[in-house]
From TrEMBL:
This is 2,3-dihydroxy-2,3-dihydro-p-cumate dehydrogenase. Keywords: Oxidoreductase. Pathway: Aromatic compound metabolism; p-cumate degradation; acetaldehyde and pyruvate from p-cumate: step 2/7. Gene3D superfamilies: NAD(P)-binding Rossmann-like Domain (3.40.50.720).
Length: 253
């Protein structure tokens, strides 16, 4: 699929990887529908996309809320007339051990709310946006591409029961949707990034960052544009569907 003039929705498009992917695709002439929670961040991202050479509109929407998602995609279709792509990128972290033990006693456990909030955004949000995008593409007669952003943590990372389960889940949806939607001209693929320099990882303690970087065979964190490059490749390669691309500097958990 040509990126030029394609209408592509990106969740979590206001900052980090979502914004980097939006700017990268804007530079190739895409029309971006940026979805996020905070209007100011969305506005800044839209300006950056226009400066990069693309069109951009913004939509405040909580991807974990069914009604929000339905009305947002309705508005995108009304504004642009078409939908050719969705990048399911919005995500949160609420890390913690399932059980934290001291002197043989469990002193802390992952709260159900901690589990549920990550599942709601990172897994249910992906389902809701994927279902809505597919519905709109099919009913509008648009060919398109859905990309789920997972993580290296899908393999199972200590302290991330909630996040690892959600990322394994969105990876599993990739071949499911690729098989179900191929007949409508919709491809689906995923990207599993390693550690990338964004606001999400900037919040890590410096010691933890250093230790983590030392374990990456390429000896550095990924750059957001390297993930964006993989997303553009998925859009442009019409025989790529049902698979995950791992962009992680050879790090393995
Ligand atoms: P980020 O900087 O925290 O950006 C995520 C964006 O999603 C934020 O703007 C956030 O808004 C938004 N968001 C959160 N909950 C939302 C909701 N319910 N509805 C709509 N938008 C919501 O994260 P990032 O590092 O760019 O990560 C983007 C994706 O890549 C995530 O799925 C993450 O799991 C994945 N990933 C990142 C890395 C990495 O190293 N950075 C590695 C592997 C995978 P607020 O800030 O206002 O909450």
């Amino acid at each position: 699929m040509k990126v030029q003039d394609s209408v592509i929705a990106i969740t979590g498009g206001g900052q980090g990887l979502g914004r980097a992917m939006a700017e990268f695709l804007a530079a190739r002439g895409a029309k971006l529908a940026l979805i996020d929670l905070v209007p100011e961040k969305l506005d800044e991202a839209a300006v950056a996309c226009r400066e990069a050479g693309g069109e951009a509109r913004t939509y405040v929407c909580n991807v974990a809320k069914e009604a929000d998602v339905e009305s947002t995609f309705g508005a995108i279709l009304k504004d642009f007339g078409h939908l050719n792509g969705l990048i399911n990128n919005a995500g949160i972290l609420r890390d913690g051990l399932m059980v934290k033990v001291k002197d043989g006693k469990v002193e802390k456990r992952m709260e159900l709310s901690q589990w549920q909030s990550v599942i709601d955004v990172n897994l249910t949000g992906v389902f809701l946006c994927g279902r809505e995008a597919a519905t709109r593409m099919i009913e509008n007669g648009d060919r398109g591409v859905i990309i789920n952003i997972a993580s290296i943590s899908r393999a199972g990372n200590m302290g991330q029961s909630n996040y690892s389960a959600a990322k394994a889940g969105v990876s599993a949806l990739v071949p499911v949707w690729a098989k179900e939607l191929a007949r409508y001209g919709i491809r689906c693929a995923g990207i599993a990034p390693g550690f990338v320099e964004t606001e999400m990882t900037a919040s890590m303690k410096p010691e933890a960052r250093e230790k983590m970087t030392a374990g990456i065979p390429l000896r550095r964190m990924g750059r957001p544009e390297e993930i964006a490059h993989a997303a553009a490749f998925i859009f442009e390669n019409d025989y790529l569907s049902g698979r995950m691309i791992e962009v992680d500097g050879a790090l393995r958990l």
